[in-house]
Amino acid sequence: MNFPTSTNSGLIYSTMRWYNHSxxxxxxxxxxxxxxxxxxxxxxNSIPNExxxxxxxxxxxxxxxxxxxxxxxxxxxxxxxxxxKAHLKSAINTKxxxxxxxxxxxxxxxxxxxxFREFSLHLLMGGAQNDxxxxxxxxxxxxxxxxxxxxxxxxxxxxxMNEMQLFIWNPFLKNFKLLPSLRRPSSLCCYMxxxxxxxxxxxxxxxxxxxxxxxxxxxYEVQIYSRKTDRWKRIENFKYxxxxxxxxxxxxxxxxxxIDSDGCSEIVTLDLATExxxxxxxxxPDAVLECCSVWEYDDLCASLGLFSDNxxxxxxxxxxxxxxxxxxEYGDKDSWVRYFTLPVFGTPGLYPHNLRLCWxxxxxxxxxxGCVVIVYNMKERAHRFTTLSVDSAIYQGELMVESxxxxxxxxx
Length: 412
Description:
The chain is α+β, with helices and mostly antiparallel strands.
């Protein structure tokens, strides 16, 4: 990885003798080191570039934004595409001790109306109070308009305003990009099923729009937006019925929508590289029926979500319990495993297909389902509510890592 050339080496080893490359850095050590480096820069510019990169890639975005002012070389380094990717790689590495510090739940709350709130999982799990979780102005257009999250990836999120205007937004940088207007079908009964994700082969971010029409069995018109070309285009129609998800779940370079196919759970995929649709099978329906025997309105009560990077399905009988199934090997329908059963906590709200889980430690799992937020202990088979469940009126949210990725096509 080539970064802008910084300076010669030497002085850092005498000014920071306690540093050892084999030592696992804690956040406090990293910040102390960054402060020490800042003071050293005032005296000398002979810091090894590799050491600067190693430290800076572990720091939060807010700190890096301040450190851009330290010197021109640091500004160039932190703005360099290769460094931004290295910082992102560090942020999404779940084995890093700083992982939870950079993981956030971004929510649209009903109070104040249509406002975003940021909840650090590190603080949330530590019992942060409502005063610590204040509403923040993230510098987005028309902040009082009705909003909906289409999805998030690599620290940027796609948001819809009034179901008309779309924008890609990095809330950590307070930087956004408005997307070109989307040409919609003339039918008044059409509304949008959508998704947002990243295509790694071409280093591109894409947004998809499926125009589902009430009373029409399809196929439905599909358009896809590319950040690289900054335009929308038509692709093959969606011919798999009505997607149960408002927004697709992004994983492994593909979008995923849950559909009900003759009482069985099936998942329709859209490959962002080929822009072609496909299918993935769900859990064995007989095994699912053994767990959830109660159905609401004669429909399958299932929600598609993500458990870290794995696809998962939550079967909710809306009366007594919920079962979580996880696909352990992507694309292998025989790898679905029932992980655990939970009691029903009440209605998940307006967006029951918002389902995200991640490991907090060896035993505990962060569980977000609609407006329900709990911590589940796998070892003790017990759960606890978070302060977010009690103090906040959320109706939609996304798990996001901090990143320096720019929404505009000029960024990495």
